[in-house]
Design brief:
The chain has 429 residues and is an alpha+beta fold. It contains nine helices and ten strands. The radius of gyration is 39 Å and the shape is elongated.
């Protein structure tokens, strides 16, 4: 049997990568980009289209298009270039999240479309915060301190309320939770919006009662008892010794233990609070003092925003809602664009390997077959992509704000050490 004479209509592949791309074809209606993010950005599409078109020639040269057919279309390369820019934006935005999340917690977030672009928001909408350096703040630390201060009664953002009840002869126990609920129902006590006691347990902060004066018993520095007083009584009390000239340090010593001494030495009552039920010691034998007062707070829902002001509850709380859009193509410098070219080449190589591997890497020809380098292309592409990602992550990790501060500190120390070893010239008069 004689070998037939083949007369193919074409001696080359049906699909061959052209030597260069065309900016007008980057996002054509017939073969658009998968996402088209940068083609939809104002003042970005022209630069992106030019970069994507140039990538075609780069891939053509690097994969040997001058010698061998490359079974890719220009649109394959455009898609690889878009993915490469988005991958670069992804890694850089993660880096920025590490830098700025602690400073942006509670800040206004935004709404994002399917491409990750900001479509609505408050003050940060459309402001390109991914290209800005946030001011260093202590917002997170301050929020932690606020919670601790509120619990310690030294500030914070909890509202302290005051309520009272009349003492009853021979009654030792009083339900403060019920007393507050009855006062709210009767309209005698008004709580802030969001401070509901329907299902919230109040926290008792302080219990006290009114005495005839702010200070009527004084353990003075003379060592005697009740030398100074203003109750207009006599004996040990003296109505003409209310004011004394004393050294400052004595006032300081008095102030240190003033509150404790008033509570433990002056009052005839003590108490305990268990499950918001107050028990007085001793049991009142008369209705005097006629009223006891207490201060309390209402447990605040940690996720509830205040009605009259923003506290950041509905703002940024993690990396997911940081107001970071895809990095603008025009903001990427030469360092980033070269990384994008190399990564897009690796993606193109991966696509070519997938195409050539469709038939198991072999193309039958008369008298034999041609083995294509599908597996080599795929392994090389995967290795190159991983290496490029690792390279960029390593560089970005070395350039975090924390690392930059450490480098500045080391440089300052090295400069001081160098200057400390410079001989001081002698002055000869």
């Amino acid at each position: 049997m004689s070998v037939p004479t083949l007369t193919p209509s074409s001696t080359s592949s049906k699909v061959i990568l052209p030597i260069t791309g065309t900016p007008d074809n980057v996002n054509s209606t017939d073969n658009p980009l998968p996402f088209g993010i940068y083609m939809g950005m104002p003042n970005e599409h022209q630069a992106f289209a030019s970069g994507a078109a140039d990538q075609v020639n780069y891939v053509y040269k690097k994969l040997g298009g001058d010698v061998l057919d490359i079974e890719l279309t220009e649109f394959n390369v455009y898609a690889a270039y878009e993915e490469s820019v988005l991958e670069y934006s992804y890694l850089v935005n993660i880096h920025q999240a590490k830098n700025s999340l602690n400073n942006l917690l509670g800040a206004t977030t935004a709404s994002f479309d399917e491409d990750g672009q900001i479509v609505s928001g408050d003050s940060l909408s459309g402001s390109n915060v991914e290209s800005k350096l946030p001011r260093y703040t202590f917002d997170y630390t301050r929020r932690v301190a606020t919670g601790i201060s509120a619990e310690a009664g030294a500030g914070g953002d909890l509202t302290y309320y005051t309520a009272s009840f009349a003492s009853v002869k021979d009654q030792q126990d009083y339900d403060l939770q019920e007393i507050v609920a009855d006062a709210v129902t009767a309209g005698d006590l008004t709580l802030e919006t969001g401070d509901s006691i329907d299902s919230n347990r109040i926290t008792i902060r302080e219990v006290y009662y009114k005495t005839p004066a702010s200070m009527w018993r004084f353990f003075a520095y003379y060592g005697g008892l009740n030398v100074i007083g203003n109750m207009s009584t006599y004996g040990q009390y003296s109505d003409d010794s209310t004011f004394e000239v004393i050294p400052t340090w004595q006032n300081k010593l008095q102030a240190i233990m003033y509150e404790d001494s008033i509570r433990t030495r002056v009052s005839n009552y003590s108490y305990e609070v268990i499950n918001n039920k107050l028990r007085l010691f001793p049991t009142p034998q008369t209705a005097s003092p006629d009223r006891f007062y207490f201060r309390f707070t209402v447990k605040k829902d940690s996720f509830e925003e205040y009605s009259d002001r923003k506290t950041g509850t509905n703002g940024v709380n993690n990396m997911n809602n940081l107001p970071l859009s895809n990095i603008r193509y025009s903001s990427i410098n030469s360092i980033g664009k070269q990384w994008i070219r190399r990564f897009a080449l690796a993606l193109s190589k991966e696509m070519l390997g997938q195409i050539r591997g469709k038939l198991g890497g072999n193309i039958p020809i008369p008298g034999g077959s041609v083995t294509l380098n599908s597996s080599d292309l795929l392994s090389q592409a995967k290795a190159e992509q991983e290496a490029l990602r690792t390279e960029l992550k390593t560089v970005l990790d070395e350039l975090t704000y924390e690392k930059l501060l450490t480098k500045d500190a080391n440089m300052t120390k090295a400069t001081a050490d160098t200057l400390g070893n410079v001989p001081v010239p002698l002055f000869v008069g």
